[in-house]
Amino acid sequence: MASSSTTALCQDTIAAIASLDGPFSCAEVREKLQSESSSLDGLTHTQARMATYYRIKRLIKEGWVQVKAGTYGPKQLYVVTEHFEVPVTAVEVDFPTDNHQQNQKQEITDKLREYHSEMLSLQGESEEYERLYQLYPDNKESYQASFQETVNAKWKLVGRIRALEKQLKRMAQ
Questions:
Q1: pLDDT for residue 3
Q2: For residue 44, how many other CB atoms are within 10 A of its CB?
Q3: How far is CA 137 from the centre of its chain?
Q4: Does 1.20.1250.20 match the CATH number of domain 4-80?
Q5: Among 93, 97, 112, 153, which residue's Cβ finds the most Cβ atoms within 10 Å?
Q6: Block means of pLDDT (10 residues each) for the chain, length 173 residues?
Q7: ∠154-147-77 over CA atoms, to 5°?
Q8: In Å, how far are 37, 41, 74 from 14, measured between CA atoms?
Q9: Which sequence spans correspond to the domains of the chain?
Q10: Distance in angstroms between the alpha carbons of the first and the last residue of the chain
Q11: What pLDDT shows up at residue 123?
């Protein structure tokens, strides 16, 4: 588990990486951050690239991301590790003692953890389909539909995770 400072620093980066499918580049993460987050606003292109690279390096240091074997230089790709997890937002705030609200928060948090586990499972499944394609490109047709179903399921799950995280934020206010 990463330290809270790493989680706070990289939370939007982690969310951007979680929404990408398969191996990703620093440029893909930067583009995602620039389109969906304000964390890189006001930075020049070079500064945004360096900030994104720094964040990915922090995630590598924490063991959440690793360099994909056989890639290097400007075309370097990264993959998430089994330790990668999308944080349940940075809202570990003390909620009011109202039992009803506490119960709701607990139910939402439990569901969020369930979705995170399912997301890791789907990530592994999609990576396996990609591996199969690399090993047996002639048989692509036999697993293409299953791969597409997995990708679609991941996107639905990302939406559910975002909805629950937004609700937890609202409850924290």
A1: 47
A2: 9
A3: 28
A4: no
A5: 112
A6: 48 80 86 76 80 85 85 82 64 52 85 86 85 86 85 84 86 77
A7: 75
A8: 12, 17, 21
A9: 4-80, 99-172
A10: 26
A11: 84
